[in-house]
């Protein structure tokens, strides 16, 4: 199973479960996570979703091996929801979403924090938005959500530099609420989730709706702009050089590219 699901005290825990691939999202995991969020949103017995990863990573982002195949062979079948469907499920999720970043988070493993209502991070975890290193554009409405969450300059550095962000830096920026000892991460995240889950679901939903509704149109507009830019750049020379370099185990060379 690429996604583990468990329920306790009205908290549904979703655990990304591709540890051999550092929980990178392939089409199957995108679909499973989107379906799980849709199910949790409709389930009257679920008050809060807690999202984390199995093994030493939270998520290494999109599976670049599959991404390369999709970029070079447009005829390959896609998932039911895919990346865009997961982003829509996150944007529309009506209940509190708590994220526990247990290890490295790359790409969607970082930008998903824009949709978190509470986020906690292990002290030894790291984050990266590798978009410019892959020759592509931002994703998951991060071009809107990150400046709103951490301020323009922190967001610009995260989205433009493709540099690693430590747990301490993530907390200082405002990407996460609290940094925890790795052994205590899930206990801390779960304790906060259970505090929320003890409240009336109708009230939780109303509070979240009043916080997110003013931004709904802007999030969707950002998603559409990003998707258009991503589609234009995916498969272009810079992206193909980045993917080829990854497959060959070398650093990409963009020096001759615009």
TrEMBL record:
Query: Could you tell me which InterPro entries the record lists for this protein?
Result: ClpP/crotonase-like_dom_sf, ECH/Chromodomain_protein, Enoyl-CoA_hydra/iso
> Can you say where in the cell this protein is located?
Peroxisome
Is the keyword ATP-binding assigned to this protein?
Answer: no
Keyword DNA-binding part of the UniProt annotation: no
List UniProt keywords, sorted A-Z.
Answer: Isomerase, Peroxisome
Regions that span the bilayer = none
Task: Report the domain of life of the source organism.
Answer: Bacteria
Q: What is its main location?
A: other
Name by which UniProt lists this protein: Enoyl-CoA hydratase/isomerase family protein
Q: What terms describe the molecular function in GO for this protein?
A: delta(3)-delta(2)-enoyl-CoA isomerase activity
Question: Which PANTHER family does this one have?
Answer: ENOYL-COA DELTA ISOMERASE 2, PTHR43684
């Amino acid at each position: 199973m690429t996604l583990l699901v468990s329920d306790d005290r009205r908290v549904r825990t979703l655990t990304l479960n591709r540890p051999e691939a550092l929980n990178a999202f392939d089409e199957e995991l995108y679909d499973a996570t989107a379906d799980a969020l849709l199910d949790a949103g409709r389930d009257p017995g679920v008050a809060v979703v807690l999202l984390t990863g199995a093994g030493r990573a939270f998520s290494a982002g999109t599976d670049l091996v599959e991404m390369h195949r999709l970029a070079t062979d447009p005829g390959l079948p896609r998932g039911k929801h895919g990346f865009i469907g997961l982003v829509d499920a996150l944007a529309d999720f009506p209940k509190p979403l708590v994220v526990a970043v247990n290890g490295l988070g790359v790409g969607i493993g970082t930008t998903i924090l824009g949709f978190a209502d509470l986020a906690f991070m292990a002290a030894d975890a790291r984050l990266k938005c590798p978009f410019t290193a892959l020759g592509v554009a931002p994703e998951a409405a991060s071009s809107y959500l990150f400046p709103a969450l951490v301020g323009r300059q922190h967001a610009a550095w995260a989205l433009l530099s493709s540099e690693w962000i430590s747990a301490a830096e993530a907390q200082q920026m405002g990407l996460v609420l609290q940094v925890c000892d790795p052994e205590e991460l899930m206990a801390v995240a779960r304790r906060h989730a259970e505090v929320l889950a003890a409240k009336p679901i109708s009230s939780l939903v109303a509070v979240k709706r009043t916080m997110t509704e003013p931004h709904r149109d802007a999030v969707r507009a950002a998603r559409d702009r990003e998707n258009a830019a991503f589609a234009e750049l995916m498969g272009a020379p810079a992206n193909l050089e980045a993917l080829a370099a990854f497959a060959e185990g070398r650093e990409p060379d963009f020096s001759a590219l615009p």
